[in-house]
């Protein structure tokens, strides 16, 4: 039994497939399969996976072994974190960034990490905040930067580091707001408007739909548009309503043609948050630097 075989077993158990585990481990599928076979042989005759179902699931023994393996990997991570080499970590640092936060995270803060820790290779993906939380929990990501609202649940194995407050606002075309003689509305007043929203999976969209449901009203979706930048462009040219982080609106080239609507009965405060596992990791110095850079960047804007 060796550490690489343990990592392979945990990866397969957490991702639910050899193929996804191979991607997470940066291995070929056959190599991952061999590591699983080696690990099962070292454990003994009792099966760890029930392969009579597709996809295979852990047996009761497999679930117990998984928890023990996680403890082993946590102990190894703690050992790595306290060694002298931890000041100059190396390897693939897997990061996730919530949709809409990419420009803020992928520029100056990550540049600082690359300069300070040249032996780290950054692997960056983007997704909804809820998905990123699960990917950090499963180990697919080392950390993520999400836009969290009160609806997001953080598992006990994870910790969240607030980086800066954000407000998700309702935005409409300036000419439409002017014609109506103001920009203060109740949510009910907006029921007849068409909304440009992200596809299902977006937490902000879910919060809006939930608020309309409480009023027993339906959200009229004019179009499902992936990405707030494109939504703002469409709103500026064709009217309608959208939901965007205030910070993103303030930096949009279309902001002169748009206005933030004051909707007292729909407030969606959010926090730009770094999510990572509670257990120490060899990447702690790099994550600490990124945290500091992000806080400074958010304080500037």
Largest sheet geometry: 9 strands, mixed
Helix fraction by DSSP (H/I, runs of at least 4): 40-55%
Query: What is the strand tally?
Result: 11
- Oligomerization state of this entry? single chain
The radius of gyration is: 23 Å
Separate helix tally: 12
Low-confidence stretches: none
Helix-strand sequence: HHHEEHEHHEHEEHEHEHEHEEH
Strand content range:
15-25%
Span of the ends, CA to CA? 51 Å
The overall pLDDT, averaged over residues, is: 87
Folded structure, characterized:
With 301 residues, the protein is α/β, with parallel strands linked by helices. It contains 12 helices and 11 strands. It has helices at 3-15, 18-25, 29-43, 60-81, 102-105, 108-116, 129-138, 174-179, 203-214, 228-238, 246-250, 284-300; strands at residues 49-50, 57-58, 91-98, 120-127, 143-148, 158-173, 195-197, 221-224, 241-245, 258-261, 268-277. Strands 3, 4, 5, 6, 7, 8, 9, 10 and 11 form a 9-stranded mixed β-sheet that branches. A two-stranded antiparallel ribbon has the order 1-2. Strand 7 (195-197), helix 9 and strand 8 (221-224) form a beta-alpha-beta unit. The protein is elongated. The mean pLDDT is 87.
Question: Secondary-structure map with pairings?
Answer:
Layout: H1 3-15, H2 18-25, H3 29-43, E1 49-50, E2 57-58, H4 60-81, E3 91-98, H5 102-105, H6 108-116, E4 120-127, H7 129-138, E5 143-148, E6 158-173, H8 174-179, E7 195-197, H9 203-214, E8 221-224, H10 228-238, E9 241-245, H11 246-250, E10 258-261, E11 268-277, H12 284-300
Parallel strand pairs: 3-4, 3-5, 7-8, 7-9
Antiparallel strand pairs: 1-2, 5-11, 6-9, 6-10, 6-11
Helix pairs in contact: 1-2, 1-3, 1-4, 2-3, 6-12
